[in-house]
Design brief:
mainly alpha, Na+/H+ antiporter like fold, 16 helices, single chain
Length: 392
């Protein structure tokens, strides 16, 4: 099939399935994933993963760029830093430990356990914020804490991802290698700080240009440039894309309609194709009792951790329960990390994960994303009904 016709069919199907999901209270990204599953090698066989891979890679970068742009005002969100840090740490590391414990029970190696925890621990910031907003609690202390948690999770998750992937790539605890990586991170952060100071001045000049969509062209080039720079320093391009968003959010672009415009084309084409690509890669043959054990264990651990963190920070039973529900969903960042981890190679040139383990981890992560979103939607409906019954 002609690649352009294939893309048109995939995008139309994605928007159709996405609309159905939104109508029943499930995030539209699940509709995009379902599109990939239905159109892919497992069902209709009208599309292959490699057909949309380049678009999916751009989707990953724009997804992280928009996330960084939306969460750029980190100083404002970090006013309740102690509560945010405690919720973030408990909500990340308890599910991480649960995944490692279950993986150990199923006989995985240490390196496999470390990577497995990395793929399933992070929550989905977009779905989390949408969940809190849907019950009118975004302005409460619990809501503000959760918004801060999504920012902190985004930053710490990317840092932990970089360190773990470096360890997995080296294959050993190489002190000299780790010091080199840390030096690279510091050097890249120095570049980030310099760009954070200089780019706003460049943006002012770009805004005075008469050529059509100069801002968009500049932002597109800047995202790619910072992603390439990050990879040059041994980091992953998604870190560069995320920080590019943070930088531009603090520039004059942060006070214009720029985000709406760049989000429009990203959400219309590139980001849906990333989730479609994930669906195309899904292989049902690798979903087994291990997958369901991981999904159940991680979601239960996350719910308990978030509720406990809420109670420890005095947000009340209702606020703690809302935090517990809103931290369940997984999504974009999990699939991004999974797609990178299962294709990563070590310094010998061999894949870090075998094909079988990589397929198992990716399929398990996909199952976690699907079930996490569905369970969250159901629990939110119950939460809303209970509040209405109480007159809240």
């Amino acid at each position: 099939m002609d690649i352009l016709l294939e893309l048109i069919i995939l995008l139309l199907l994605a928007k159709g399935f996405g609309e159905i999901c939104e109508k029943i209270g499930i995030p539209s990204v699940l509709g995009y994933i379902i599109t990939g599953i239905v159109a892919g090698p497992m069902v209709l066989k009208v599309a292959q993963p490699q057909d949309v891979q380049i678009f999916a890679q751009l989707g990953i970068l724009f997804l992280l760029f928009i996330t960084g742009f939306e969460q750029g005002n980190i100083r404002e969100l970090m006013k309740d830093i102690k509560a945010i840090a405690s919720v973030s740490m408990l909500g990340y590391f308890i599910p991480y430990a649960a995944a490692m414990a279950i993986g150990w029970f199923f006989g995985l190696t240490l390196n496999q356990l470390i990577l497995l925890g990395l793929l399933v621990a992070a929550t989905d910031s977009g779905i989390t914020i949408k969940s809190i907003a849907s019950v009118g609690k975004l302005g409460t202390r619990a809501g503000k804490i959760m918004v801060g948690v999504t920012v902190m999770d985004g930053l710490t998750g990317l840092i932990i991802f970089t360190l773990i992937m470096t360890y997995a790539t080296l294959g050993t605890i190489d002190i000299a290698g780790i010091m080199h990586v840390l030096a690279s991170i510091v050097a890249f952060l120095a570049i980030f700080i310099v760009m954070h100071k200089l780019v706003p001045f460049v943006v002012k000049y770009v805004e005075y240009m008469n050529v059509e969509q100069a801002e968009f062209s500049f932002a597109f080039a800047f995202v790619i440039l910072l992603a390439i720079t990050a990879e040059h320093f041994g980091l992953h391009g998604i870190i560069g894309a995320f920080l590019a968003g943070v930088i531009l959010s603090d520039s004059p672009m942060g006070t214009t309609t720029f985000l709406r415009r760049i989000s429009s084309i990203s959400l219309a084409i590139f980001i849906p194709l990333f989730f479609i690509w994930g669906g195309l890669l899904l292989n049902f043959e690798y979903i087994n009792p291990f997958s369901f054990a991981i999904v159940g264990g991680v979601l239960i651990a996350n719910a308990v951790a978030a509720y406990l963190a809420g109670m420890l920070n005095n947000v009340g039973k209702e606020g703690s329960l809302l935090m517990s529900i809103s931290m369940l969903p997984r999504g974009d960042i999990n699939l991004v990390l999974a797609s990178i981890a299962v294709t990563a190679v070590g310094r010998t040139g061999e894949p870090i994960l075998t094909k079988e383990v990589g397929e198992l981890f990716f399929s398990t992560t996909m199952l976690l994303v699907l079930l996490g979103a569905i369970i969250t939607a159901v629990l939110l409906k119950i939460f809303i009904r209970k509040r209405e019954e109480k007159g809240g």
